[in-house]
Structures are given as structure tokens and as C-alpha cells.
């Protein structure tokens, strides 16, 4: 008998009794004392209110009036939950252990026919990152960055952070207000307002050494931060108009710092405005390659000369010409 199945049967057993002992559980389910105690503790953790009675003849009693009503799922709700589990595998998401235990508990609540449906779905649905030779519903082969859970727990307390980031051989410390935590192409990225340089910055979570709440007293408000960022946005040196084909390419991939605003209700045209740091060679190369990726369905209204030069050089190389 599987552990989840056994625990569910024990829960039904004790829920029908006003009082029970560990010895009774051992005899009824043919398990050891340590296993019985461990199962009882897990049942308590799930939320069933048990009261331990002290003494030689002691045991447990159930507070039946405190038991929450059972949660029931429809067939479609169960399928939706497990398809979501399948689709998020190999995405370096946090709380994987909790996700696995949740899946196991849900499996224990459904019928054998429903379990068979899920097994079949698991065999025929393949998502990105799924191993077709071992499409195990509870396969946890992806390994999220160990600091991501700590970061999320810290964010739930305070979005003003002190972060230590590895930059080459050096470790630098920044005081930031976290705007967003991005997940893109298997990587986690922090987008935050750097209080020191008064600008938005992006930090890879994989470079994070430590994170803790910023308890400084001279913190500016979120409203002031957004106003400062709005002022900086007026410095935009890239303005593009996108047609439907370019919008489709944009949806496939775009740098995190870029966003579009649709200019008609059918979302077939859009405008993109951004600031490109022309002093950063990496930014210029990234933007050059990305603009070529967008294709010809764009109208350039404003573009730094450095990026335009990069586009001309890339096209010349592609066509076999020597760049001028």
C-alpha cells in the first residue's frame, strides 16, 4: 500500500472514532510503531484536529466539530491542476518539494479512474523540457537556484532590499527597491530601482550571494521611485512602430526592459519606446541582433547611430559585403 493511500485510509478510520490509540493503528494497518507515529504527525500537519491524551491508556481523540468540510474537485479541475504541474517542469521554479507533496495529496484524493486519466495525459502530453523517455508526472529533474526561495520569502516581508551580487571576481552590494522578479528562458532576474544610482537595473539571481531586508530609515517611497523612473523614460532614444509580423516576433522574444503599447483595439499595431545605453557595447550588440530578429515589419522613428551602424554592418556581413 502506498504511503498517501495509507494515510487517507487512516484518516477515514480515525475520523469515525471518538478515540484511538497508536497500538490500534499498528494492529489495524499492520505497520510499525514508528510508522504509525509518523503517519499521525502527517495527518495532524494536514489539518485534522487531534488531541493527545496523557497516561498509560492514553491515545488520541478527534475534535469532530473542528474538521473542515472535504474539498471536492471536478474531473476538469483535476486535469487542469495536473496539466499545470506538467507544464511547469524543468522551469527552475521554487518550492518544488511542496509541489511534489501537493501532487501526492491530490492523487490520494481522487478515484482510480481519475488517476488512470492522468497517467494517460502524462503519456501523450509533452511540454518543453519534458523527457519523452521518462515523462513522469512527479519528475523533479529541474533544479531551481537555491537562493530563489529565500529571495521570495524576503520579498513577502519587504521589497526594500540589500543584495550582494557577484560581478566578475568582485562582490558588490546594492540597496534596491524590487520592482519585479522575472523568469525568462529558464533564468530568474531581479528588476529593481538602484537607490545609489537612481535608476532601474537588472540582476541575474544566479549572481546573488546574499539578500536581506533594507532596514535603513532614509528610504524613498514607491511613488517617488516611480516618478524618478518616469523622468528617466523621457530620455528614450529608441522609438519603433510595429506591424503584426513584428508584434508576433516580439511575443516570441524580447529583452525584459522593453514593452510595447498597442495602438489599435485589434492589437495589430504597436509602438515601442526605450532607452539604449550607447556607452555599453553589450547593449548595442543585443539591440542590433534583436532588431534584426524583429524583421522588416517595423518603422523606425528614432534610433541611436551606434545601433544603426551595427545593423548596417550585420547586414553587410550577411550579404557577403565588406562593412564600410
Topology:
Elements: H1 3-15, E1 19-20, H2 22-29, H3 33-46, E2 50-52, E3 60-62, H4 75-87, H5 96-109, H6 112-124, H7 147-155, E4 160-167, E5 170-184, E6 187-194, E7 199-204, E8 208-213, H8 222-233, E9 238-242, H9 244-252, E10 260-262, E11 270-274, H10 281-294, E12 298-302, H11 305-318
Antiparallel strand pairs: 1-3, 2-3, 4-5, 4-8, 5-6, 6-7, 9-11, 9-12, 10-11
Helix tally equals: 11
Weakly predicted, low-confidence segments: none
Structural class: alpha+beta
Order of helices and strands: HEHHEEHHHHEEEEEHEHEEHEH
The count of β-strands is: 12
Strand content: 15-25%
Q: How much helical structure, as a percent, in the residues?
A: 40-55%
Measured between the Cα atoms of the first and last residue, the distance is 75 Å
Summed over residues and divided by their number, the pLDDT gives a mean of 81
Q: Mind telling me the C-alpha Rg? A: 28 Å
Side by side, the strands of the main sheet go: 7-6-5-4-8
Largest sheet features: 5 strands, antiparallel
> What is the overall shape?
elongated
Notes on the structure:
With 324 residues, the chain is of the alpha+beta class. Helices cover 41% and strands 21% of the residues. The chain is built from eleven helices and twelve strands. The chain has helices at 3-15, 22-29, 33-46, 75-87, 96-109, 112-124, 147-155, 222-233, 244-252, 281-294, 305-318, and strands at residues 19-20, 50-52, 60-62, 160-167, 170-184, 187-194, 199-204, 208-213, 238-242, 260-262, 270-274, 298-302. It has a five-stranded antiparallel sheet. A four-stranded antiparallel sheet has the order 10-11-9-12. A three-stranded antiparallel sheet has the order 1-3-2. A hairpin with a 2-residue loop joins strand 4 and strand 5. Helix 2 crosses helix 3.
Amino acid at each position: 500500500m502506498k504511503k498517501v493511500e495509507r494515510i487517507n485510509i487512516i484518516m477515514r478510520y480515525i475520523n469515525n472514532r471518538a478515540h484511538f490509540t497508536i497500538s490500534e493503528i499498528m494492529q489495524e494497518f499492520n505497520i510499525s510503531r514508528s510508522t504509525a507515529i509518523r503517519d499521525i504527525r502527517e495527518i495532524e500537519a494536514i489539518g485534522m484536529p487531534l488531541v493527545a491524551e496523557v497516561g498509560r491508556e492514553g491515545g488520541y481523540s478527534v475534535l469532530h466539530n473542528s474538521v473542515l468540510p472535504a474539498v471536492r474537485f471536478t474531473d476538469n479541475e483535476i486535469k487542469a491542476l495536473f496539466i499545470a504541474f506538467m507544464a511547469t517542469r524543468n522551469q527552475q521554479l521554487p518550492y518544488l518539494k511542496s509541489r511534489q507533496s501537493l501532487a501526492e495529496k491530490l492523487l490520494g484524493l481522487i478515484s482510480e479512474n481519475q488517476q488512470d486519466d492522468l497517467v494517460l495525459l502524462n503519456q501523450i502530453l509533452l511540454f518543453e523540457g519534458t523527457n519523452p523517455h521518462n515523462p513522469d508526472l512527479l519528475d523533479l529533474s529541474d533544479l531551481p537556484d537555491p537562493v530563489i526561495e529565500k529571495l521570495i520569502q524576503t520579498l513577502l516581508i519587504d521589497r526594500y532590499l540589500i543584495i550582494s551580487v557577484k560581478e566578475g571576481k568582485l562582490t558588490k552590494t546594492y540597496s534596491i527597491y524590487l520592482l519585479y522578479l522575472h523568469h525568462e528562458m529558464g533564468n530568474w532576474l531581479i528588476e529593481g530601482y538602484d537607490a545609489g544610482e537612481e535608476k532601474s537595473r537588472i540582476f541575474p539571481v544566479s549572481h546573488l550571494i546574499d539578500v536581506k531586508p533594507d532596514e535603513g530609515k532614509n528610504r524613498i517611497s514607491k511613488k517617488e521611485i516611480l516618478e524618478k523612473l518616469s523622468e528617466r523614460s523621457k530620455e528614450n532614444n529608441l522609438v519603433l512602430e510595429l506591424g503584426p509580423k513584428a508584434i508576433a516576433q516580439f511575443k516570441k522574444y524580447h529583452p525584459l526592459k522593453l514593452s510595447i503599447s498597442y495602438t489599435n483595439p485589434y492589437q495589430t499595431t504597436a509602438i515601442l519606446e526605450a532607452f539604449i545605453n550607447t556607452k555599453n557595447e553589450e547593449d548595442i550588440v543585443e539591440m542590433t541582433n534583436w532588431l534584426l530578429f524583429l524583421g522588416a515589419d517595423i518603422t523606425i522613428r528614432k534610433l541611436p547611430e551606434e545601433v544603426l551602424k551595427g545593423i548596417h554592418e550585420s547586414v553587410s556581413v550577411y550579404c557577403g559585403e565588406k562593412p564600410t
